[in-house]
């Protein structure tokens, strides 16, 4: 059974007819062609599908689309239009925190969530903040450096 579900997606009001139990990840990728949100494990363990819903970081592979009724959803595609994204992008590039790139959209969303909460995070807060996002390439040190750099460069944005 399909329901009409209305929500804000990347700053625009949208409506979709879908089963309320369909994974938000699938709706984003299949119905809205927003493929920046990746499916890694499909079990909420890797963070590749991380997005922000009403200010909270969530794994879209575990989030039923019916739960976004009336909420604000931010994906990497929407976040790309913000000044905060530019600071994070430049910092990730400079620190060498992007290698294969598969985890990067989810990692950037986790970094955005973290910086909203802690504009000047400690290394411990950064490591804890990205602990739900797995990366097989970088060893995390470059990602931690990138987030620290972004917090310094983006002073006042978060």
TrEMBL record:
One of its GO terms (molecular function) is 2 iron, 2 sulfur cluster binding. The keyword Metal-binding applies. Residues 3-79 form the 2Fe-2S ferredoxin-type domain. PROSITE patterns: 2FE2S_FER_1, 2FE2S_FER_2. Keywords: 2Fe-2S, Iron, Iron-sulfur, Metal-binding, Oxidoreductase. It comes from the Bacteria. Gene3D superfamilies: 3.10.20.30, [2Fe-2S]-binding domain. InterPro entries: 2Fe-2S-bd (IPR002888), 2Fe-2S-bd_dom_sf (IPR036884), 2Fe-2S_ferredoxin-like_sf (IPR036010), 2Fe-2S_ferredoxin-type (IPR001041), 2Fe2S_fd_BS (IPR006058), Beta-grasp_dom_sf (IPR012675), Diverse_Oxidoreductases (IPR051452). This is Carbon-monoxide dehydrogenase small subunit. It comes from Fonticella tunisiensis.
